Amino acid sequence: MPKFAANLSMMFQEHDFLDRFGAAAKCGFRGVEYLFPYEWPAADIKRALDDAGLEQVLFNMPPGDWAGGERGMAAIPGREAEFAETVEKAIEYARVLDCPRLHAMAGIVHAGIDREEAEAVYVSNLRHAADAAARHGITLLAEPINSRDMPGYFLNTSTAGRKIMAAVSRPNLKLQFDIYHTQIMEGDLAERLRQNLEAIGHIQIAGTPGRHEPNIGEINYPFLFNLIDEIGYTGWIGCEYRPRAETRAGLGWAKEYGITAR
After folding, report:
1. Which residues partner with 32 through β-bridges?
2. Has 70 been annotated as catalytic?
3. Considering the entire predicted model, what is its pTM?
4. I want to staple 20 with a disulfide (CB 3.0 to 4.6 A). Which of 12, 33, 37, 235 is the partner?
5. What backbone torsions phi and psi does residue 40 show, to the nearest 5 degrees?
6. Which one of 55, 119, 143, 213 is the catalytic residue?
7. How far is CA 105 from the centre of its chain?
8. Which of 11, 78, 7, 54 is closest to 247 using CA atoms?
9. In 3D, which of 178, 168, 171 has the Cα closest to residue 143?
10. Got the DSSP string for 205-223?
11. Is 113 exposed, middle or buried (0-12, 13-18, 19+ CB in 10 A)?
């Protein structure tokens, strides 16, 4: 049976952030992820995790000026020193939270930035981050993100992700395989899951279009969940979707997996 983690940046927004942990656990989730923890002391988040009996599955490295439109800096020339600082900060949080995975966002590559230079910087930065993470038993993730939701984002497809992984050549660099993004950019989901299984370090889901609950839209998630079990993926599946209404009201899709509105 798939292991589902609630994404607390999108789900349970009826509650303050630190109260979302308990709300997720009450509904049957045993793992959580979110975009960024850095607004809160790591010790406070750790307490919320422990009180709820939850596992911290994943979070992102600091993305730069998120409010100003930045979406990471790993592939941005000239930001190498700043990126290295974000690696250390993320690892510091991950150690407190016992988090085994960190995602390094590539960033928006604007017109005027040479893509070959951006790729070289991305590969170099990922090598540095992977080596730093490996010293603490942490897996580094690279996620392709669709160009419709995030125009200009450097990494858009699983094919491009595998190319970057080969260039970085670090065993603890894995693919963050978001089915929502993959459907928009590539489709052929079952085959792409099969082809990339050995490279996948984390899976995420959402309905397409709209990025709502996975039982809304064009993707046959029950089929894919069965396939994920069939091909032997045993990791977490992050529920990175925006509930159409109150979070618990939209959890009907998950009842057969032990997650219910409580």
Report:
1. 6, 56
2. no
3. 0.97
4. 12
5. -120, 145
6. 143
7. 10
8. 11
9. 178
10. E--TTTS--TTSSS--HHH
11. middle
The single-letter DSSP state of residue 1 is -
135 near 92, Cβ under 8 Å?
A: no
CA distances from 117 to 54, 123, 129, 148, 173 (A): 41, 10, 18, 23, 21
Residues 105-146 have pLDDT tens digits of 999 999 889 999 999 999 999 999 999 999 999 999 999 999
Place of tokens 């993004």: 181
Residue 73: enclosing H or E segment and its boundaries? none
Exposed, middle or buried by CB within 10 Å (0-12, 13-18, 19+), for 236? buried
pLDDT in tens, 158-205: 999 999 999 999 999 999 999 999 999 999 999 999 999 999 999 999
Residue 157 to residues 134, 144, 225, Cα–Cα distance (Å): 25, 5, 21
So what's the pLDDT on residue 111?
86
Please check whether residue 138 is in contact with residue 101, taking contact to mean a CB–CB distance below 8 angstroms: yes
Residue 174 bridge partners (DSSP): 141
